[in-house]
Specification:
heterodimer; A: Rossmann fold; B: 328 residues; mainly alpha; MetI-like fold; 16 helices; 2 strands; 1% strand; globular
Chain lengths: 578, 328
């Protein structure tokens, strides 16, 4: 080891894959070190090599990986040079789980579906200790208690599918910590969680890290999470380290151009959020006071969408899930209505009920078509419904699964036109080419298939497809959530530009409050199927009325360490006085 | 759990009643009846019977009564006395003909199913964990060959080889001198000597298909994050693979046990005919050709009951192995 104080020392690590006719350099010589008790945040976009680096520490890379450089870990029995030991070697197996714990992104799939939580935690213990049955169970229950899971003994008998995402991630952490590791690798452990759950898990990790003085390597694409947790930050990009520094250095004096760019692009809660800076609250724009009724494009009233979950033997519904329960709101021409909420709150179901992918259980949805007439969407059927669909379109979340891989871009974009009865191929091609140009792609890409495009490009194709029938109303369902920071920023810009030029009205469904704060004119908050609060964006963020909205806003990770600390202090003071 | 099993068993009762009715209707569907078929057979040999005799014949078989009465007689005898009626063709009680053959069929089929799994599962796991290795390609080629060659052809080749090179008596399950002998160690040995050909023939095709399924299932499971978690806990490869993904990949197997059971009895008629096996397949074929309605009906009913039992077994096995189903 260069520095005897270090717990982990990575020097000039290179990982490459030999492909058929080229070599893919995934990690191109990086240096990174972690001291005992230190939290190092590793930030980067997808393809930056951050996850692969974590796997190199455990020597768990894909079998075809070729490595160079060194990874040294100070273990209980001396320094281990990880890459010099075989993947299947005894030394490595003892380190994994025994001295280095790892937690993963997907709490749903990262635990075995056919073993109980207890079986899985105790498995780690039996691999690294000589404890017997009784002692094993005691230790496992103790761990459940440590990660603050209720009813620790009963928890051991549960299976992953019986737990919520947050509880699964706690169980995962318990497993990783079971043998008192000195280093914890966390690969996007909160990315798949809701914002309030994320805040709890981050608190838990921080608490445990301090309690056991663990070194932590925290991999994430989210600067907010890093700001809340890390002591030092390493920014990675395309397999190299752009820069490493203390948290304040990275956030307030970034040296690398890449870091500066990323920091400028990440969506932030406005200055005035949670009345943090009262002077920053902008005056209401004049346009907002004029709320004439003729401007209404969509009026949703008492919308209900229930799904039967249990039927008796006669087929009568005995239990139902109230996915959308009495929701009303209006959207005006040219505005963006942001519908926010945690997963399962019913926000996507609202959109699908509006677009009549579902037949709503009750309620009305009146939509003003471009001809100026209002149509009651819940009553339209057959051909009239299809014609109305030309005016309302949707852009989906996942750019990978929302495009049929067997259709060319021209077929994909043209499909809504074909559905509307257009048969003139030349017209379809011209329109598709024009739209490709409009979303910033080249018209000569028409004959390609989706796999030839990156995630951001695919999302642009999805947007073009939604616009091909000249709709006036577009639902954006988490349409930028799956994209990297810089790509998401570009896509948002594109959506803004299109809204401006095409006079579009958006219903933007998202869980990302920082992003929507800078985009939407009005905000609606959903919780368990109900719309708990709705209002204009500025008043909502400056002074949310409902307790749930406050909780949601409080949980948003702030990519600004000083502000995060200030808010944290205030939160603690509020909690004390309350 | 117990309640779940009980509920399933209770549900199977009305299902069986419906199936028995459907069975009876189906065997009545073809135009004519056994007597028509019998007359046609007689005419072929130059004999004939008068219309009056035909009526008498029908009466004596009870074929002149309304269908619902015939059905009730048939089903009540089965349920209360285990009497499947008289085979019109063989002039023997159906149950005498049936049970012997079903026992042998079950034995052959179970053995071949076990052999199928013993071959397919380890090879499938190996092919998936060493994807694109030399042996993966070898097994892939063999798999497609096994899938592509019809069972009866393989049976013919094996019979010919056994006969020409090893001087075995092939075909049937017993040597001619043992067929009617009472059970003894010698007869059992004779059975084993004959058994391997049909078992191997039936297992090859199945194994070839199954190993592709196992390979595909495993490839999907191996890519899942929980496998990586298992490695990160410190487990070795062998333990990770067999403890985690294999268990999940086996689920489709458990859920198809139910189909395997009836297929065991009705399946591979051609192979059974070629190998001259005293199994149920050829018997069912003959009963259907001759409109031997009680024989055919008894068969179809038993097949259906096996289907129900098989499905029940699958359900129970699945709930035992997959907690996600148990708690749903």
């Amino acid at each position: 080891m260069r520095n005897p104080e270090n717990l982990l020392e990575i020097e000039n690590l290179k990982v490459s894959f030999q492909m058929r006719n080229f070599t893919l350099d995934a990690v191109k010589g990086i240096d990174l070190s972690i001291k005992p008790g230190e939290v190092v945040g590793v930030v980067g976009e997808s393809g930056s090599g951050k996850s692969l680096t974590a796997r190199a520490i455990l020597n768990l890379m894909p079998r075809t990986a070729q490595t160079a450089g060194s990874v040294k870990f100070k273990g209980r029995d001396g320094v281990v040079s990880v890459l010099d030991h075989g993947r299947e070697s005894r030394t490595m197996r003892e380190l994994r789980g025994g001295q280095i714990g790892m937690i993963f992104q997907e709490p749903m799939t990262a635990l075995s579906p056919v073993h109980s939580i207890g079986q899985q935690v105790m498995k780690t213990l039996t691999l690294h200790t000589d404890q017997r049955k009784k002692a094993l169970e005691d230790r496992a229950a103790e761990l459940m208690d440590l990660v603050q899971l209720p009813d620790p003994r009963g928890m051991l008998k549960k299976y992953p599918h019986q737990l919520s995402g947050g509880m699964r991630q706690r169980a995962m952490i318990a497993m990783a910590l079971s043998c008192n590791p000195s280093l914890l690798l966390a690969d996007e452990p909160t990315t798949a969680l809701d914002v309030t759950t994320e805040a709890q898990i981050l608190n838990l990790i921080r608490g445990l890290q301090e309690q056991f003085n663990m070194g932590v390597m925290f991999i994430t694409h989210n600067f907010g999470v890093v700001a809340e947790l890390a002591d030092r930050v390493t920014v990675m990009n395309h397999g190299i380290v752009e820069e490493t520094g203390t948290i304040d250095e990275i956030f307030y004096e970034p040296k690398a151009a890449y870091t500066q760019k990323l920091l400028s692009l990440i969506p932030r809660l406005p200055e005035y959020a949670m009345a943090d800076n009262v002077e920053a609250i902008p005056a209401q724009p004049a346009a907002f006071s004029k709320k004439a009724d003729e401007d209404v494009v969509l009026k949703v009233e008492n919308l209900k969408m229930y799904f039967p979950t249990q039927k008796d033997w006669r087929g009568r519904v005995t239990e139902q899930l109230k996915a959308v329960d009495d929701v009303s709101f209006t959207i005006r021409r040219g505005e963006t209505f942001g519908l926010v909420g945690e997963s399962g709150s019913g926000k996507s179901t609202v959109a699908r009920a509006i677009l009549r992918a579902y037949q709503p259980t009750a309620g009305t949805v009146s939509f003003q078509a471009p001809d100026g007439n209002f149509h009651e969407l819940t009553e339209l059927q057959g051909d009239r419904l299809r014609r109305m669909r030309a005016h309302m379109q949707m852009v989906f979340q996942d750019p990978y699964s929302s495009l049929n891989p067997r259709m060319t871009v021209e077929q994909l974009i043209g499909e809504p036109m074909v559905n509307q009865g257009e048969t003139n191929q030349k017209l379809i091609r011209e329109k598709a080419a024009a739209l490709l140009h409009q979303v910033g792609l080249k018209p000569d890409m028409l004959s390609r298939y989706p796999h030839a495009f990156s995630g951001g490009q695919r999302q642009r194709i999805g947007i073009a497809r939604a616009l091909v029938t000249n709709p006036s109303f577009v639902v954006l369902d988490e349409s930028v959530s799956a994209l990297d920071v810089s790509i998401a920023a570009q896509t948002i810009d594109l959506l803004r530009e299109l809204q401006e030029t095409l006079k579009l009205t958006y219903l933007f469904i998202t869980h990302d409050l920082s992003m929507i704060a800078n985009f939407a004119d009005n905000i609606g908050v959903m919780q368990k199927g109900k719309l708990v609060e709705a209002g204009d964006t500025v008043s909502f963020f400056a002074n949310p009325r409902e307790a749930y909205s406050r909780r949601l806003l409080n949980a948003v990770p702030i990519p600004d360490p000083r502000r995060a600390r200030r808010l944290q202090a205030r939160r603690e003071k509020e909690a004390l006085s309350a | 759990m117990l309640w779940f099993i009980l509920k399933r068993i209770l549900w199977s009762i009305p299902t069986m009643v419906l199936i028995s009715i459907a069975t009876f209707i189906i065997i009545q569907l073809p135009p004519g009846d056994y007597v028509t078929a019998y007359i046609a057979e007689l005419e072929e040999t130059g004999e004939s019977i008068s219309a009056l005799e035909a009526v008498e014949l029908r009466k004596s078989f009870g074929l002149d009564r309304p269908m619902i009465v015939q059905y009730w007689d048939w089903i009540s005898n089965i349920v209360f006395y285990g009497d499947f009626g008289l085979s019109l063709d063989w002039k023997l009680p159906v149950s005498d003909l049936l049970w012997d053959r079903i026992a042998l069929t079950l034995m052959i089929s179970t053995l071949s199913l076990l052999l199928t799994w013993v071959i397919a599962i380890p090879i499938g796991v190996y092919s998936a964990t060493r994807q694109y290795s030399v042996f993966d390609y070898v097994f892939t080629v063999l798999g497609f060959l096994g899938r592509g060659i019809p069972d009866f052809l393989l049976a013919l080749v094996l019979m010919w080889m056994g006969f020409a090179y090893f001087n075995f008596h092939v075909g049937g399950l017993f040597s001619p001198e043992m067929a009617d002998a009472p059970w003894s160690l010698a007869k059992f040995w004779d059975l084993l000597v004959h058994l391997w050909v049909p078992v191997v023939v039936l297992a090859t095709g199945g194994a070839a298909g199954l190993l592709r399924v196992m390979r595909a299932n495993m490839l999907e499971e191996l890519g899942k994050p929980y496998v990586e978690t298992a490695y990160a806990q410190g487990m070795g490869e062998r333990e990770v693979v067999w403890r985690y993904p294999v268990r999940v990949a086996l689920n489709p197997f458990f859920s198809t046990v139910g189909w395997a059971l009836p297929a065991l009895i009705s399946g591979d008629v051609i192979t059974a005919v070629v190998l001259n096996l005293p199994t149920t397949g050829p018997l069912l074929l003959r009963a259907l050709l001759n409109q031997d309605m009680y024989m055919a009906g008894g068969f179809i009913l038993i097949l259906s009951i096996f289907t129900i039992i098989g499905t029940l077994l699958s359900d129970i096995l699945l709930t035992l192995t997959d907690p996600r189903i148990r708690h749903a």
